[in-house]
């Protein structure tokens, strides 16, 4: 089987569909525990994606609990599909979350935070390789967002599955990860 993005997208979407709810909960918890080993807990601004339940994404509620328990500033985003831009908002007790037309839970509005201010980003992905390249859903939102951040912003992929050897069709615009956490491993790139 080819290791291009299209093939990997199909492979990992189907692997995710096979996970039971219990499996994905257990694996999400294991990933959250792995994150505790990373040298990120002195940082202030953490960007977290809210999972699309229909896509069996990693449940980031546990990560949100870890962050709020440490009094971190939590940033969540809203996607503009016309411009392929993400607008980032501070998550507060009064933040209203609503699903968009793609079932992505998003903040309705709130206090905007510039990309430059974010210290750590938890990045959703379908697959990744041993060089730190990732395969997302192919819309380019995260590559654009990551390219707007500071060089020292720490990019952490979250994956239910282990790394592929390599992804064949990596582009220059593809942003590399610094780490990727799976239920069993922390990869450092």
UniProtKB/TrEMBL annotation:
Organism: Flavobacterium plantiphilum
GO terms assigned for molecular function: 5-formyltetrahydrofolate cyclo-ligase activity
InterPro entries, sorted: FTHF_cligase (IPR002698), FTHF_cligase-like_sf (IPR024185), NagB/RpiA_transferase-like (IPR037171)
Annotated family: Belongs to the 5-formyltetrahydrofolate cyclo-ligase family.
Cofactor: Mg(2+)
Record carries keyword Metal-binding: yes
Keyword Ligase (UniProt): yes
Pfam families: 5-FTHF_cyc-lig
Keywords carried by this UniProt record: ATP-binding, Ligase, Magnesium, Metal-binding, Nucleotide-binding
PANTHER family: ATPASE INHIBITOR/5-FORMYLTETRAHYDROFOLATE CYCLO-LIGASE, CHROMOSOME UNDETERMINED SCAFFOLD_24, WHOLE GENOME SHOTGUN SEQUENCE
EC number in record: 6.3.3.2
Catalytic reaction(s) noted: (6S)-5-formyl-5,6,7,8-tetrahydrofolate + ATP = (6R)-5,10-methenyltetrahydrofolate + ADP + phosphate
Record's protein name: 5-formyltetrahydrofolate cyclo-ligase
